[in-house]
């Protein structure tokens, strides 16, 4: 490769409203890494949270920081210990939290954190999958262990996570209820939702009961009320609520942070004890193995990405601003110049 520099979207300080497009060095790769020419990346809620400094307690980054948490692209170099992939492979993935940076022309990632791109998806379509796909899989399959016939509530069914989680939950055999606005009811039904609640008109906690699982993507009062509908032994898993001491310990956070989160999550843990249910906060982990399982399901046309809008890389700040409005249907994609 003759190029030495690349264009990247960089965070220089917290509470920054937009990202700066800057020229920076193309990353070097380790023995277990691959270097990818990024073709497309997706916008995720964690981007805005990171930019605002809201993730600093559990995710510590040194600034300046190239943003971006998932991608689809083509391998242009492989490390000496990599044998599962080769130059020219079309891949996609979600890097570990300590190595984000997919909003760039090139990106270095551990080979264990990628999978071959589904053959029936374009790079743009594939970029919509890794973060929401792995999050949904780890919540519904790994933590909840959803079984055929079980009832699961998935909050915000028309969002990036929701549109994928509904499909996956149906593949696992669940009876799926979701919340959305009236405008998106047909979409979520088409994706497989069995019961749809217009959250503008009805509080889900007033009409649902005895659910096996609740996938909370909203936090706040929606998370608190999840315990009103959960049955004994059921699971409430949140990706937007309060992290727990268990999460802090598994994430390797220092003891004082474990104590702080233990105190901060005590109301939720109390509700879990009262309802004889389980509460967990999940921050997904990269996994090429699990992503490959999703690839197989996508190629079998059992799962599909839902994309709201595609922005050119030069308009990434516009894409982030649109994301922060909170009204996207499915995913928002940033397309890199070829």
TrEMBL record:
CDD domains: MDR_like_2
Key word ATP-binding present: no
UniProt-listed InterPro entries: ADH-like_N, ER, GroES-like_sf, NAD(P)-bd_dom_sf, Quin_OxRdtase/zeta-crystal_CS, YIM1/Zinc_Alcohol_DH_Fams
N-terminal signal peptide: none
GO MF term list: oxidoreductase activity; zinc ion binding
Entry protein name: NADPH:quinone reductase [Lactobacillus koreensis]
One Pfam family of this chain: ADH_zinc_N_2
Domain named Enoyl reductase (ER): residues: 15-334
Species in which this protein is naturally found: Lactiplantibacillus mudanjiangensis
Gene3D superfamilies recorded: Medium-chain alcohol dehydrogenases, catalytic domain (3.90.180.10), NAD(P)-binding Rossmann-like Domain (3.40.50.720)
Top-rank taxon: Bacteria
PROSITE patterns named among the record's database cross-references: QOR_ZETA_CRYSTAL
Keywords, alphabetical: Oxidoreductase
